[in-house]
Every structure is written in structure tokens, then in C-alpha cells.
Design brief:
The complex is a heterodimer of chains A (212) and B (72). Chain A is an all-alpha fold and 212 residues long. Chain A has one domain. Chain A has 7 helices and no strands. The longest helix of chain A is centred in the C-terminal third of the chain and has 48 residues. Chain B is mainly alpha-helical. Chain B is elongated and about 50 Å long. Classes of the chains: A mainly alpha (212), B mainly alpha (72). Chains A and B meet through helix 2, helix 6 and helix 7 of A and helix 1 and helix 2 of B.
Amino acid sequence: MMWVVVGVASLFLLKAGAAKSLVPSKLQSMAELLVEFIQGIIQDTMGPSGKQYFPLISSLFLFILFCNLLGLIPGTYTVTSQIIVTGVFAIGVYGLSLVIGFKLHGAKFLPGILIPPGTPGWLLPLMIPIEIISQIARPISLAVRLFANMTAGHVILGVLVGLTITGGLLIGWLPFSFTIVLYGLEVGIAFIQAYIFTVLTCVYLGDAIHLH
Amino acid sequence: MASSQDPVFAGLGQAMRVGTDLLAALIVGGFLGWLVDSYVLDSTPWGMAVGLVLGLITGIRNAYRAAQRWQS
């Protein structure tokens, strides 16, 4: 399924980028919107120095977005509803931010992320454990959020469809109408979760680059 | 497709972020405290209690900071 997602995403972008006309076609303007959207995220969260991470962040965003959206087609499988997938992404992103931070700032990076600026000395024994917890919680919340939203949405849809089938014609129309409404909501959630994952990736990388 | 400057879209993203952050910090705090309890100090249940409180503080502080950043 992952390869299917990669294939569909690449096909979409290759097809959209094939004809570079000045007045864009529907497909091309969709791709351009997507690219400008990702550029906007990077500009907002990382500033101009984030340009070099555009390939990483755009492929991450597109992969998660297509996983979420393709998983909504009945009969397919949602890759991002497995915590191992989202966990590997989250740990990879967080590890990358650590590597970049240590590469750019050297040994100054560790006190830089563990001590917030302007902390008085007597607060240090409290602030350092808090910051350690907050750093470890980053990849976990990143992974759990995507996984939980995807899984919960599909479980709710599954339960409602099951109710429709057991309810029969007499009462089954009620859960079925809920299914339609929730399906629209799920499409929105698929997009928003991909957006949040990307924004947080940018924020973590930006923290590692700028260090306050 | 909304742009990243769209206030509704960005606000929705912010709101969905905070809840999980609270929970994750609490879980990590409790887990670290439990680790200290069982493998380092053998001080059940104090490490986990302190860790949970620290995790709670962390989660609330992170949510507070996120809200502050959102206002500006």
C-alpha cells in the first residue's frame, strides 16, 4: 500500500508538472497551490533559512496527505493508522532535528534546548526536568496524534457502517446519513493532520536551526 | 485548499495540537518516573508520583506557551 501511495503521488505530480503552460490547467494549478502552500508553511515557521529543507518537508507532507486521502477510499488500507509508520516518521524527524542542531551549534546545543532563555538560576533544577520531558514528548505526541486521529476516524466509520447493516431498512438510514457527514469530516481531518505533522516538523527543525 | 495563512485553518491546526501535547507530556513524565523507580532508585511509588506531576506541569506550560504564540 505504501508503494501504491508513492506511485499515485508521483504520478499526480509528474502529470501536473509535465505541461508547463503559462495559463495553468486544472491539474497544474492544483500542484502549484500545493507547492505554494508548503512554501508558505516553511516561510512562516522557519524563515528564509528553511528553503533548503523544502524537498524533505514537501515529500513528507505529500506522502502523509496521500496516505490519509487514499485510505479513505473504501476497501483500501490507511498506512498512517499504524503507529509503527507514524512512529518511525516522528522519530526520524526528531532525530534529524537533533542531528542538525548538534551539527550547527556543537556542544552549545544541549544547554540551548534544555534551558529556556531568561531562566533564573534557582529555577534550573525544576526547568531542566521539565524541558527534558517536553523534548521527549515531542516525537511521541507527533506520532500518537496522527495515528490516533486516523484510527479513530476509521473505527467510527466502521461502527456506523456496521450499525447500518444490522439496522436494516427501518432504522439503518440514520447511521448511514451520519456516515456521509462523517466522511466529509474525515476528508478534512486527513488534510489537517498532514498539515499539522508538516508544521510541527518545520517548527522542530526551525528550533534546531535558530536556537531561540 | 486553504493557504497556510488562513486563520480558520491555522487555528484548527493549533487547537488539535494542544490536546495531544498535554497527554503526551503527562505520559512521558509518568513513564520516566516509573523508569527511575524500577531501575535506578527502587523508590516506588515516589518517582512515578513526582514524574506525573512534572509531566502535568510540562503539558500545561507547553499548552500555555502555544496559546501565547497564537495570540501574537
